[in-house]
Amino acid sequence: LRRWRKFVQTPSSRAVNCTYDAFICYSSRDRAWVFGEIVKELESLSKVPYTLCLHERDFEVGIAIHENIRTAVNSSSSVILVVSDNFFESHWCCLEMQIISDWLVQR
């Protein structure tokens, strides 16, 4: 997280057209670690809290998953990939990574 903070904009300087400071891409099997470490640190313990986009709480019900991913990525200043063995075994994480790759090319 310390390295990420060096490269990401501070919450107060978030791009005007972005709803979130970061979209976190992770496997649901890593949920406990993501919420216990990353989300807790960035949303609760930071001097200036970051606004994070997490699929399980911020995706809209009834919208196709790939559209939710695209919207989340396009609405975020940056992306945090939580890469683990679980990540590479997840079809959804691979789809998210492909959409993020496309987003990076377009930036």
Task: Describe the protein.
52% of the residues lie in helices and 14% in strands. The chain has 107 residues and is an alpha/beta fold. It has a three-stranded parallel beta sheet, sandwiched between helices. α2 (31-45) links the parallel β1 and β2. It starts with a helix and ends with a helix.
Structure described in brief:
This protein has 107 residues and is of the alpha/beta class.
Give the SSE layout.
Blueprint: H1 2-7, E1 20-25, H2 31-45, E2 52-54, H3 55-58, H4 65-74, E3 76-81, H5 85-89, H6 91-106
Parallel strand pairs: 1-2, 1-3
Helix pairs in contact: 4-6
Taken from the alpha-carbon principal axes, the silhouette is: globular
The number of helical runs is: 6
The SSE string, one letter per element, is HEHEHHEHH
* Uncertain residue ranges: none
For the CA atoms, what is the radius of gyration? Answer: 13 Å
Which oligomeric state applies? single chain
According to DSSP, the number of beta strands is 3
What proportion of the residues form beta strands (DSSP E)? 5-15%
Which percent bin holds the helix content?
Answer: 40-55%
